[in-house]
Structure of Ankyrin repeat family protein:
Amino acid sequence: MAEIIDVLLKKHPTLIKEVDDFGWSALHHAAIRGINKLAKELLKADKSIAYIVAEKDNNKTALHVATCKGNVKIMKKILTYCPDCWEMVTSDGRNILHLAVEFKKQEAFDFILKKSWVGNLINQMDAEGNTPLHVYAATPDFYGSDLVDHPQADKNVVNKKNMTPLDVVGYSDVYSVRQNAVMKELTKNGAIAGFWNPFVRGIDLPSQTKKSDLEKKRSIPTDIRKIADTHMVVAALITTVAFAAGFTIPGGYDGNDGPNKGLANLSRKAAFKVFIITDTLAMVCSAAAIFLYFIGASFVDRLKLMHSFLAAVILVIVAMGAMVIAFMTGLYTVLENSLELAIIECVICSFCFPVFYYSVKRAFS
């Protein structure tokens, strides 16, 4: 590859700095495709190409492109030949740390945070006044605790909308478990709500902020109410079934005269004991979930409702799992004499749990 580049540059020395219709140089293309050897040879030939900006692509340099794609090896190559290249920003004012967070490139993000000059990037604002921490607060499915924990990160800086990072994550349109975790991370590290968040701070509204807009953000979408109503019906059904199963136990009761009259016939069997415990667990969890849904119906604040809603969802999931185990052990108790059939029944019931696991994992990831 080195020989080919040498031949091309000898015949056409200006070729290395020529750009395509988007303003991309050869180094830009090497960066996006992750061609490390090509990037190295181009930089050896003329390191100034690292400073070429793509005028029709947000003024991105090759380092910006490599960061967006997460090509850390090429990032290292560029910074080796051009150590100050990290200072350059895109046309909207974003640096490479902004981009690593925005495009969720974990390896590039970790690499940048370890550099000695990261302090110059960590609180740098883009054209909208957003620091990398603001971008992290608004970016779903990205692990950036090291940025929140960084001693040089200003957790309470405000952007041009007077929003702190805590405001940004708190008023996202979609509430999630991840959003709640980021809010806790920020609060733990000293983040506070900005003037944009008068409901938390208890202060007067800024003149440029409409109260109706803020209330709309805090209001509860009708879809959430409908989902909660559906879940409450499911929880009520589980409660009803679990309650009924507690009194129509497997094996029935002892009807003979004597000290054991009225007691469960199979009470000494281990499977029966598991049945009783799991049936009780299903009953209690589903009843608690109904209570949380009932209480949540009185909330007018979206965040409060979502906390109650998530807790109720977890309780319903536990109740479902417990009900399946109760059904499985209840049948096993009365089928113990037909061990083969009992085992088949247990295996079939067990298929529910992988479904539960992967569904919950996907929903809460």
Notes: The domain at 1-88 is CATH 1.25.40.20 (Serine Threonine Protein Phosphatase 5, Tetratricopeptide repeat). The chain has a mean pLDDT of 83.
